Amino acid sequence: MTARILDGNALAQTLRADFKTRAEALAARGTRPGLAVILVGEDPASAVYVRNKVAACEKASFHSEKIVYPADVAQDVVLAKIAELNANPAIHGILVQLPLPAHFDSDRVLEAIAPAKDVDGFHAENVGALMQGQPRFIPCTPYGVTKFFEAAGIDLKGKEAVVIGRSNIVGKPMAMLLLQAGATVTICHSQTRDLAFHTKRADVLVAAVGRPRFVTADMVKPGAVVIDVGINRLQDGPDAGKLCGDVDFDGVREVAGAITPVPGGVGPMTITMLLANTLEAAERSVR
Ligand code: NAD
Predict the structure, then answer these.
(1) Does residue 243 form part of some domain?
(2) Hey, how many other C-beta atoms are within 10 angstroms of the C-beta on 59?
């Protein structure tokens, strides 16, 4: 069997067209969705992510502001900026690009964002709301994954779902969303014994590990839905310099029922759901 490819670019395009229409309708009533993105330091990957987020806002007719600080900026300067953005009615979403430099207390910075503007969904209040099954902002990457299930008509009720990775950004919220959709969920991580025992039982397998081609065909149940969250740059071999996921795509696609590619799978959906959360925040602000 060759797996059906779940195309993140196509899905992102469909959703973004809808968001643009909604943003223009809102703007016609006097509110343009606004996102502020704070970048500290010169990490090249972070700079690319921020640029892509701002560009996506522009394309969707959102207002956006990019605030860049040098790596040695004092935390208090950033906290004061967040306080200012919290009070700014033209800004509906605030995002601080992670990781922050070592002298920052990331938790303190994230907690400084007003929960109603926390479009990344990382504030403890929003994490708690998600845990309680009443999400207000869902972290963008797992939120994007749920859209693949919706679009492909994949019913999760009663399914065995396995998530590899337990980060606050991907693994944990992903597991919570799968649970809420009715799946029986297993979270695997770096201390899991016999990972393949778990993954081979999965009707739905989500890999969020950060290791290139880590999930191989022999770890996957025939017909499973495989979601590859990983973004890794290959260091050596014939494909050096290329991006790849946490899943060995060529091998796993021969076993799985459906699979997301890298690039072109989960990646484009993450920024799409940032737009969704910002739009939702703007719509809520006038309700
Ligand atoms: P992380 O480093 O915070 O977490 C990785 C997780 O993998 C950890 O919970 C760890 O326990 C687990 N792990 C490590 N080794 C393991 C092993 N041998 N067996 C089982 N589990 C193991 O990473 P993250 O922020 O969750 O990101 C994971 C991947 O997803 C990275 O490649 C990252 O670049 C990518 N990512 C992609 C997007 C996107 O938009 N597509 C967004 C966020 C993260």
Answers:
(1) yes
(2) 12
Let me know if residue 19 belongs to a domain: no
Same-domain check for residues 147 and 99: no
Q: Which helix (H) or strand (E) holds 233?
A: strand 232-233
Tokens of 133: 């099954």
pLDDT tops 90 at residue 1: no
Residues with Cβ within 8 Å of residue 167, at least 6 apart in sequence: 208
- 144 and 42 within one domain: no
Q: Is the CB of 164 under 6 A from ligand 1?
A: yes
Are 144 and 242 in a shared domain? Answer: yes
Indicate which CATH number applies to the domain containing 197. Answer: 3.40.50.720
Q: 147 with 59, same domain?
A: no
Which of 81, 117, 118, 120 is catalytic? The answer is 120
Does 42 fall in a domain? yes
Averaged over 218-232, what is the pLDDT?
A: 97
Indicate if ligand 1 lies below 6 Å from the C-beta of 243.
no
pLDDT band at 29 (very low <50, low <70, confident <90, very high): very high
Evaluate whether residue 21 is within a structural domain.
no
In this model, does residue 227 exceed pLDDT 80?
Answer: yes
Domain containing residue 65: 30-115
Side chain identity, residue 213:
R
Which strand ranges, in their side-by-side order, compose the sheet holding 63-69?
Answer: 63-69, 34-40, 93-96
pLDDT per residue over 61-107, tens digit each? Answer: 999 999 999 999 999 999 999 999 999 999 999 999 999 999 999 99
- Pair 144, 261 in one domain: yes
Of ligand 1's listed atoms, the one at least distance from the Cα of 211 is 32
3-class SS string, 241-268: CCEECCECHHHHCCCCCEECCCCCCHHH
What is the reported pTM? Answer: 0.97
Q: What percent of the chain has pLDDT over 70?
A: 100
pLDDT of residue 84: 98
